[in-house]
User: Fold this.
Amino acid sequence: MLRKYSTHRTHDDNLKLGALTAFSAGMVNVISVIVFFAFTSNVTGHYAVFAQELAKGNWFQAAIVILWIMLFFFGSFTSNFVIIHGNNYIGRYLSHAIPIILEIICLLVVGIYLQGFYTESLQETEFLVGLLLFAMGLQNGLTASISNSAVKTTHLTGLTTDLAIALSMMTKKHYRKDEKVVEKIQLLSSIMFFYVLGGVITGVLYNTIQNYTFYIVCFFLTIIIFYDYYKLTILKYNHKKFFSLRQEEVKESKSNVHQEQNNRITEKNTCY
Assistant:
């Protein structure tokens, strides 16, 4: 899911990445609404709140909201920065995994703080909401960067529009046979489904385990990292096995050639 980049990715790569990251984004967004009464997987509503606070002359609250927006922005910026600069120095897989690792750290900090230190003050809420927005910016920047903007999983506004357009195209026979249109519908539908599924599961889980739900999100993000690690390990093993077998074949071939040469020399000496 993470080791391939841009146009080198397959439809299956994007499906897996989109489903798991959408699932985690849906979980984070619902739990942030439950705990903080704020959306954290997108910033569309925050722009409206920012404009409203400016109109009312609430400069401090407007500054807080614009800070939240900038944290989401900086999260996306950080993801792409690590990806484009890290590919040449630390490898593609690791540079793609770092944004997910940073996201996991942010979610762990929020979960641990809520369990042991949270007093429900306004300042704490503003800080934790900002941290979640940064985490969601990291995720959205990562998925958009490595998939050439095909996968965006933290908000559904543009996705709903794209899905509606793609479905309308299916009303013409020409597009129903277009593999790219069909794959796009599959990808967008899976993202939407798993986003909603993540939200529903979070709503149910929170009634039982409450703030431990953040650790469940971290678990799914960890699956994304170790899935590719597992695939890379298998590929390396198969490559070494293939190389070893190839060497044995070459040695055997050389041995056979050498044996044939000896046989010919023996035959010639016998004739003489």
Q: What stands out?
A: The longest helix spans residues 213-271. The mean pLDDT is 83.
